[in-house]
Amino acid sequence: MAEMTNGTTPHRNSRKARVGLVVSDKMAKTVVVAIERRVPHPVYGKMVTRTTKLKAHCEQNDAKAGDTVRIVETRPLSKDKRWRVVEIVDRAR
Predict the structure, then answer these.
(1) pTM for this one?
(2) For the chain, which domains are there?
(3) Which residues touch 36 (CB under 8 Å, ≥6 apart)?
(4) Percent of the chain surpassing pLDDT 90
């Protein structure tokens, strides 16, 4: 159980949030979001791009491929879905 603070409401930690590009919207109420991050190469030090694909729940099903979206961490919704679309930052042209 969540610990009570001041005896009123349970305290909940802040959730991770990411911004990424929708690469697939073929599933019902689910989008695949590609998150890019830049990390130094372990040996040579050159910055390389790493991509992580996450499945996110999109209740209204309004995010389309090419859109930039903000997603937040949530409870497990299925075997692969642990993220939820909060807002569409930029629409695809």
Answers:
(1) 0.82
(2) 16-90 (2.40.50.140)
(3) 20, 21, 49, 50, 51
(4) 83
